[in-house]
Design goal:
The structure holds 2 protein chains of 2 kinds. Chain A is mainly alpha-helical. Chain A is built from 8 helices and no strands. In chain A, helix 3 packs across helix 6 and helix 4 packs parallel to helix 6. By secondary structure, chain B is mainly α. Classes of the chains: A mainly alpha, B mainly alpha.
C-alpha cells in the first residue's frame, strides 16, 4: 500500500505510522464514498435491465466486488503476515490482523449476496457449486486465522502463529480450489451452471468496476482505521506520544 | 563431550520413544479407534438401514469420521512433551527439528492413522461395500491419514499451550483437510460406481508428497514460535 512510497524505515515504526495513517484515511475514505454513490447510481439507474434475469441481476454490483475483495485480501493478508514474520516487522503483522476482519466481512458479504441472488435466479439459496464451496472454505480459513490470533494473548506470538497459518492457507488455496472443482464435476448433482453469463453491457461493466474501486478504497481506509486502534492497543505509550506531537 | 548421534539414529530413537510412550498409554490409542467405530455406526442408526442409501453415503461417512478421529490424537502430539519440558530440549538439540517433527508425526500416524485404515474394512462391510471397494477404502485411508497427521501437526504446534486448544485445532485444521477428504472419499466413490479410482488415489499420493515436504517445516516453525 501507499506507505511504501515513504521512507520505509521511518514509517515501519508503528508509532510513526500512526499519525500518517490518520492523515491517509480521508484520502481513501472520501473517494470511496463518492465512488460508492456513483457506482450505485450507474448500477441502479443507468445499467439496463438484464434480458434473462430481470432486475435481480443488479446484486452483482456488490456481489462480484465483494467476492474479489475476499480473495485479494486473503493473499494480501498472507503477504503482510509473511513480511511481518520474515523481517520481524510489527507493523506488517498488525496490518495482517487488521486486514483479516475486512476480508472475512467481504467473504461473508459475497456468500450472503450470492444466496440472495440464487434464490430468485436458481430457485435455491445454496448450491454446492465449486465457486460457492471454495468461497465458503475461504471463509473458514479467515475464521481460523481470526480465532487463532484472538486465542493467543502474547501479540508477538499471535502475529507469527497467524503468519504460519496464513502461509499454509495460501499454499492450500489452489489445492482446495482444484479439489473442490473436481469434486463438483464428479458429483454433478446440481445442473445449474454459474458460468452462462451473457456478455455484459458497457454500463453494467462500468458500474461493476466503479464498485470494485470503491470496495478497494473502502478496504484501505477501514484497514488503516482499524490499524490505528491496534497500534494504540499494543503500543499505547509510543503511539500517544507520536499522536500528541503530530496533533492528530 | 560425547559426539551427538547421527540424524538417522536420532530419527529411529524418536520414533521408538514415541511408540513406547503410546504403548504405555494404550487406552488413548484405543479410544481413538473406538471413537471412529462409534461415529461411523451412528449413521445407519440415524439414517435407516436401507442398503442402497448406506452404500452411497459410506465413503463420506467413513472419511469424515476418520478426519474427526484423527483430530483427537492431535492434542497429544506435542502437549505431553511440552508440559514436562522435553519439547524444549528437543528444540535445543543439534539435530534438525524437521526430522524430530517428522519422527513424531510418523509415530503418531502409526498409532492413530494405521489402526483406522485397518479397521475401516470392517465398518465398510456394515455399509454393504463390495470386496474391491473395501480394498480401495483401506488404500485411500493408508494414503490419506499420513496427510491428516502431517497437516494436523501444524495445528497442534500452533495451538500449543493455548486455552481451548482442542476446539481451536479443529477450526484451523479441518478446512485444510478438505482436499484429502475430497480425493479420499472420491476414490471410494469411484470404486462403488465402477469407475477406476486411480486418478483420485494418484492425487491423494501427490497431496501426501507435498505435505511430506512442506508440513514438517511449517510445524517446526510453529513450534519455535510457540516455545519462544
Amino acid at each position: 500500500m501507499t506507505k511504501r512510497k515513504f521512507n520505509w524505515y521511518k514509517y515501519a515504526s508503528p508509532a510513526n505510522f500512526y499519525p500518517l495513517a490518520g492523515k491517509m484515511i480521508p484520502w481513501f475514505a472520501i473517494p470511496a464514498a463518492i465512488l460508492f454513490i456513483v457506482g450505485l447510481y450507474v448500477g441502479f439507474f443507468v445499467a439496463p435491465t438484464d434480458a434473462q434475469q430481470g432486475e435481480v441481476y443488479r446484486i452483482i454490483f456488490i456481489h462480484v466486488p465483494a467476492a474479489w475483495m475476499g480473495m485479494f485480501l486473503y493473499i494480501l493478508l498472507a503477504v503482510y503476515a509473511g513480511i511481518g514474520w520474515a523481517f520481524n516487522a510489527r507493523l506488517s503483522a498488525m496490518m495482517a490482523s487488521s486486514i483479516s476482519i475486512t476480508g472475512a466481512m467481504f467473504t461473508f458479504l459475497s456468500l450472503i449476496t450470492g444466496s440472495l441472488w440464487g434464490k430468485p435466479t436458481w430457485g435455491t439459496w445454496w448450491v454446492w457449486d465449486a465457486r460457492m464451496t471454495s468461497t465458503l472454505i475461504l471463509m473458514f480459513l479467515y475464521i481460523g486465522f481470526i480465532s487463532l490470533q484472538s486465542a493467543i494473548d502474547d501479540p508477538r506470538r499471535a502475529d507469527r502463529a497467524g503468519a504460519v497459518l496464513a502461509l499454509v492457507g495460501v499454499i492450500n488455496i489452489p489445492i482446495i480450489y482444484f479439489s473442490v472443482q473436481w469434486w463438483n464435476t464428479l458429483h454433478q448433482g446440481a445442473t445449474i451452471r454459474i458460468l452462462n453469463k451473457p456478455t455484459m453491457a458497457p454500463p453494467m461493466l462500468a458500474a461493476m468496476l466503479i464498485m470494485l474501486a470503491a470496495c478497494w478504497l473502502y478496504s484501505i481506509a477501514i484497514v488503516l482505521y482499524r490499524l490505528r486502534f491496534i497500534i494504540v492497543e499494543r503500543e499505547r505509550g509510543a503511539a500517544q506520544v507520536a499522536a500528541a506531537t503530530a496533533g492528530i | 563431550m560425547t559426539a551427538s548421534p547421527s540424524t538417522l539414529t536420532m530419527f529411529r530413537w524418536m520414533v521408538r520413544r514415541d511408540l513406547i510412550l503410546a504403548w504405555r498409554r494404550r487406552a488413548d490409542v484405543l479410544s481413538t479407534v473406538f471413537f471412529f467405530v462409534i461415529v461411523v455406526s451412528l449413521f445407519p442408526l440415524s439414517i435407516g438401514p436401507e442398503t442402497q442409501l448406506l452404500r452411497s453415503i459410506a465413503p463420506g461417512v467413513v472419511w469424515v469420521a476418520a478426519l474427526l478421529a484423527s483430530m483427537l490424537s492431535l492434542g497429544r502430539l506435542f502437549a505431553n512433551d511440552y508440559q514436562d519440558g522435553t519439547l524444549e530440549q528437543m528444540l535445543l538439540t543439534p539435530q534438525p527439528l524437521y526430522l524430530i517433527v517428522l519422527a513424531k508425526v510418523l509415530a503418531s500416524w502409526l498409532v492413530a492413522g494405521v489402526p483406522l485404515a485397518l479397521i475401516a474394512p470392517v465398518l465398510g462391510v456394515q455399509f454393504g461395500l463390495s470386496q474391491d471397494t473395501l480394498l480401495i477404502l483401506t488404500v485411500s485411508l493408508m494414503l490419506g491419514t499420513p496427510v491428516l497427521s502431517l497437516i494436523g501437526s501444524i495445528g497442534a504446534a500452533l495451538t500449543l499451550g493455548l486455552r481451548g486448544g482442542g476446539v481451536l485445532i479443529a477450526i484451523l485444521v479441518l478446512p485444510l483437510y478438505i482436499p484429502v477428504l475430497v480425493f479420499g472419499a472420491g476414490a471410494v466413490d469411484a470404486s462403488i460406481i465402477g469407475v477406476s479410482p486411480q486418478a483420485n488415489l494418484s492425487l491423494l499420493g501427490a497431496v501426501l508428497a507435498i505435505a511430506l515436504v512442506f508440513s514438517p517445516w511449517a510445524t517446526s516453525a510453529a513450534l519455535r514460535i510457540s516455545l519462544e
